[in-house]
Amino acid sequence: MGPTQLADHDVHRLYADHHGWLQAWIRRRTGCSQRAADLAQDTFLRVLSARAKGIAVYLEQPRAYLATIARGLVVDQWRRQQLEQAWLDTVAAHPGAVQASPEHSALILETLHEVDAMLRGLPGKVRRAFLLVQLEGLPHRVVASQLGVSDRMVKKYLAQALVHCAVLEAELDGLLVE
């Protein structure tokens, strides 16, 4: 069939024919029927969003198409849960620290998710150089040796990562919009 623009009846048919299957597919991967229901709905929202943007959809294998979207959503949720657990573990490990309000905690978690997404969007060596310098405090020459590149290349990698950080900061401050 190839790529096509979905009409209203196509979306309804896709949902009616595959929603139950998709929800069961997600439930097998997550072990949670509530999470499966939410992610199945989110999958169809992505389909509707693509349709609204005029993005062509491949309907030759609708289950493969839906599973690809759902798989990404499951991975994103798993990643979010890991990040949130790491935050909770960090807070619990410092009982003397000031406890943040639920609103402040939500802002911190959202910022952590944005930083995580930004880091995942960087090329591998750029991300690794940035983390080695910023988190490990390693000098450029040591990072260069670990990555098998020149000191100059490490500086380029760091500049590239810092540009991404500046864009993220501007987005978080509401200065940039998509």
TrEMBL record:
InterPro entries: RNA_pol_sigma-70-like, RNA_pol_sigma-70_dom, RNA_pol_sigma70_r2, RNA_pol_sigma70_r4_t2, RNA_pol_sigma_r2, RNA_pol_sigma_r3/r4-like, WH-like_DNA-bd_sf. It comes from the Bacteria. Residues 113-165 form the RNA polymerase sigma factor 70 region 4 type domain. GO terms for molecular function: DNA binding; sigma factor activity. Keywords: Sigma factor, Transcription, Transcription regulation. Gene3D superfamilies: 1.10.1740.10, Winged helix-like DNA-binding domain superfamily/Winged helix DNA-binding domain. One of its GO terms (biological process) is DNA-templated transcription initiation. Residues 14-82 form the RNA polymerase sigma-70 region domain. NCBIfam families: sigma70-ECF. Belongs to the sigma-70 factor family. ECF subfamily. This is Sigma-70 family RNA polymerase sigma factor.
